[in-house]
Amino acid sequence: MQLLNPCPIVPFTRPVRGRVVLPGSKSLTNRALLLAALCDGPVTLTNALFSEDTGLMITALKVLGIDVTPDFRAGSIDVAGRGGAVSSQSAELFVGNAGTAARFLTAFCAAAPRGVFHLDGAPQMRKRPMKGLIDALRMLGAGIRCLGEEGFLPVEIEAHGLDGGAVNLDANESSQMLSALLMVAPLARAPLVVTLTGGLRWPFVEMTARLMEQFGQQPVERRDGQTFSVGNATPYRLAAGTYEVEPDATAASYFLALPLVAGGSIELGGLRGPGLGLQGDTQFAAVLERTGLTLSSRQNPASLLGAIEGNAVRRGVAQDFSGFSDTFLTLAAIAPLLNGPTHISGIAHTRRQETDRVAGAACELRRLGQEVFEEEDALTIVPRPLRSDVEIETYGDHRFAMSFAILGCHDLRGDGRPWLWIRNPGCCAKTFPDFFDVLELVWKNTHLGS
Asked: Going by DSSP bridges, is the β-strand pair 420-422/390-392 parallel, antiparallel, or unpaired?
């Protein structure tokens, strides 16, 4: 699909109907790529996501000398696991604006037996926090020099392996830093004990710990909620040799919200209900239930169905998103269509992601005529009549593009004419390159019966 810029969103004039097959999870694909590289033997990842973020991870692993072979048509990636060994003793790695790649590769390179590695990213990635991870890796024996501002990319890593033992970590600004340490811990010379000095968003760390078990590790021990220990005696192995990546629960949030915007129902193939699977973002489905969506699930084959009656009341809600913050923009974008205020909290850390998501959301909602109260950690959105002929600024952030595109599916004028445009829609390539193609297909299934 050739995208215009800005891209007009064609509203749904009929209740939604259709089935969506979601791409694989970005969070799981990049974690599984790293764990596959740590395995002692070949691993095939199926239902893998192919996007900018995962492409950067694949390229970096190749630069480090790990044989990674993607098969785009099959949706699979073959990784020749080397038990964490890297053949390149010197490498220049570029991570773009991929936070997972930046944190995971920093820890992976620091755990290498030897070598000098340079990591850098896009200008926005140079502003994203790395200090907690860098400090912890230094305590474990890694030589890391920040080549610009202390605590940020670019960095030079002089690897000598990791000592293990006790280490403190401030992962308050990104749980990815703790996930990175946990995944490389089995390579250390002694068991690793990590004590957190700040807060923690547990669901993504739990995802990491459970994935490590699936790749042959002993369970990560969590004591008092703030201390984690990982042994160093068990190598990574995937007995079956194949790992199927779950559908992306964050991507699911957009299409689950679609019936709230246009009525009708939608089925998401392969997705399980709230609390099932590895991804904490499945909790968002339960939030939509409170707004008025009806959920039902099927286990064989697995799918989740979201539906709403035409006359159902769509209610504003209050929700702490600290555990699944990647989905808060989905709720924020559709809040103008809900009955009553919507209060979103637990999102301060999203000010330091691809962009300042809190400030950006407030700005775009005000552009749409909404009353918005912005705090450091929260937004309150009071619905007001929506303005038409609005161009949404995405700030180069994929989640703005996808969330507000769903709002644009609402038939504001009552005649099917576009009233909302998305600037730089191509930014969706970061995690969901086919988003607008999938949305168009749902529109055609709904209106043309194809």
From this structure: parallel
Beta pairing partners, 381: 342, 372
Number of domains in the chain: 2
As a whole number of angstroms, the distance between CA 437 and CA 240 comes to 34
Other residues' Cβ atoms within 10 Å of the Cβ of residue 415: 9
- Which positions ≥6 away from 383 have C-beta within 8 Å? 316, 335, 336, 337, 338, 339, 340, 341, 370, 371
**389 catalytic residue (yes or no):** no
Chain-centre distance of CA 71, in angstroms?
22
163 shares its domain with 275: no
Q: What is the CATH number of the domain that holds 67?
A: 3.65.10.10
Q: What is the mean pLDDT of each run of 10 residues along the chain (450 residues)?
A: 91 96 95 97 97 97 96 96 88 96 98 96 95 97 97 97 95 93 97 91 92 96 92 91 96 97 95 84 95 89 88 94 96 98 96 94 98 98 98 97 98 97 97 97 89
Which region, left, alpha or beta, applies to residue 289 given φ > 0 means left and ψ of -120 to 50 means alpha? alpha
Helix, strand, coil % in the chain, rounded to nearest 5: 35, 25, 40
Residue 186 structure tokens = 């089995």
Rg (alpha carbons) of the chain, rounded to whole number: 22
Nearest in space to 99 (alpha carbons), one of 48, 140, 56: 56
Does residue 237 sit within a domain? no
CA dist 404 and 327 (Å) reads 12
Tell me what pLDDT residue 198 has. 81
Query: Looking at 120, 170, 326, 397, which residue is catalytic?
Result: 326
pLDDT score, position 372: 98
